[in-house]
Structures are given as structure tokens and as C-alpha cells.
Amino acid sequence: MKKSTLFSTVVLFAIFFGTLFSCKKTAQTSTQLVFDSIVVKEQIPLLETNDTTLPFADVKVSFTYPVKFGNKEDLARLQQIFVGTFFNSLNLDTLSPREAVDAYLADYKKEYKSLSNTYYSEKSQLPKGETPMWYWYYMYNTNKVMFQNDSLLGYAVEYSDYTGGAHGSYRITYTNIDLAELTTVSEEDIFVPNYKKPLTEIIINRLMAQHHVTVPDSLINLGFFDLDELIPNNNFWLSDKGIHYSYNQYEIAPYSMGVIDVDIPYENLSAILKPDNVIQKFFPTK
Asked: Residues in domain DUF3298 (predicted)?
């Protein structure tokens, strides 16, 4: 029943596609950023049995993280950010990438197997021969780089899972790292104080343009939730073209509409960008 494959492949390329850059944190020394990947594929049986017809959790984790960057302290900090954001846990970001993967999967396995306490009781309430199908779980987690240059690294973490209920879920989160300071970038680093209302208006205008409508109420007719509740959600990645937001399922629209992406060119944001903001640092020509 149980199939497990665990392998690690060193990805010998600079920032995924062979880019070399100079980093302030490493005394302006040209530093190659090298990644390693831990990939786990495993089927976790709910019950202690070899019966392959019984429920299991299908698990696939593909975690790419840096193994070479600057000095030892720089690398440790960068790995800490990757671990903390991939597993969405401050309890794991003090662990090495391998230890974090092992701890995360051990917790998942423990939680999933605890469901065996209710499996037989729920099965007994169904017609003879039927099995509660909601015990077949899955979890697929991965990450990928969205943008990089000599001072910025932005990446996405994608989560897809089923934990019972009518359907599974998918969500995506973004992290932008200032490679000179080794800190993450938030909306407050980019925009002036009291930016949320004007930024919300910009987001709604971009949604209207992307959906080819001219008034906000038309978005509601397309399925969007109450626009009065739409706010910037800090879930974005930066590129040389603009800022790219994503709203996950149920944030501003129903599950059936999936993840909603909103792309905003920098020229649309000029009125609310901070003086000397990080955009100018990452993209000096903007």
C-alpha cells in the first residue's frame, strides 16, 4: 500500500536560470545563488492494514530552497525565510530544510491517522458495502520563483489539498525578499500611509479592465462578492512591470471562480508610492 519516494536533486543554476549577481550582504562579492530540491511522494494509509482499497492520503511535497548564498549567516537567514513561508509555521523555521520537511510530514501523518478513530463508526452508518469517500485525502505543496534580479527574489508557494467535504482547495501565497537586507517586503514598504482606500480603488479598476466591464456593479453580476469588503491583502509578487496580486478562493469571489489575479502597472500606482520606495531600489529605472 505505502509508496514512498524521497530524493534530493541539487539544482546547479543561479536563481533558477543561471543569473549571477552582486549582493550587499556579502561585501559586494559576486555570489551564485544555488538551490536544492527535496521532493517527497508518499501514500499514507489511514488504517494499519495492507488493504489498498481502504482510504489513504496522497502526499506530494516539492520544496526548493537555497543551499549557497553569501556567507554562512546570510544563507541561514535566507533558508529561514524559505522554510517559514513554505510551511507557514514559525515553529519550523528554526529547523534545517530537511528537518522541516520531516517534521511537517510527521505532523500531517499523525493528524491524518487520528481520523481512523471515527472511520469505522461513520462507515457503520452507511448502506452495506459503501465506504465514506471523504477519508481519501491529498496534499500537494510546491514552490516556484516568480521574479528575480540582483536585489529582489520573489516566489510563490502553491497548496492544493482535500481534507473532506464537497471539494478540495487550492491557494497560492507570495514572498518577496530584499536580497541586500534579507528581509521580506510588505505593502507598507511600498506605499504611503493611508494607502488602502486608493489602492482598493485601483484594484477594482484593474478588475473591471480585466473583465471588460465599465462599472463596479458589473463585477458583482459576474460573481464577485460585495466590493465594499475588498481590500489589499498583501499577497503579491513584484516584477519589473508592476505588482501582481492574487486573491484566493472565497476571498473576493466564490470557489468556482478560482484564484483571482490582479496585475497593476507601476504607472497606475505613482500617486501612492512612497518617496524612495523599494520599487526604485529594485528597479532603478522605474
From this structure: 188-267
Query: Which class does domain 188-282 fall in?
Result: alpha beta
d(CA 209, CA 32): 40
Ordered by start, the domain boundaries in the chain are 4-184, 188-282
The answer to whether residue 104 scores a pLDDT higher than 70 is: yes
Residue 227: exposure state from Cβ atoms within 10 A (0-12, 13-18, ≥19): middle
* Per-residue cell: 146: 516568480
Lowest mean pLDDT among 4-13, 36-45, 113-122, 193-202: 4-13
Sequential DSSP letters for 187-201: GGGTB-TT-HHHHHH
For 198: left if phi > 0, alpha if psi spans -120 to 50, otherwise beta; the answer is alpha
CATH number of 4-184: 3.30.565.40
Helix (H/G/I), strand (E/B), else coil: 3: coil
Angle subtended at Cα 74 by Cα 70 and Cα 79, rounded to the nearest 5 degrees: 110
Distances in Å between the alpha carbon of 132 and those of 112, 115, 128, 141?
Answer: 15, 12, 11, 25
- Of the candidates 285, 248, 286, the one whose C-alpha atom is nearest the C-alpha of residue 264 is 286
User: How far is it, in rounded angstroms, from Cα 149 to Cα 152?
Assistant: 5
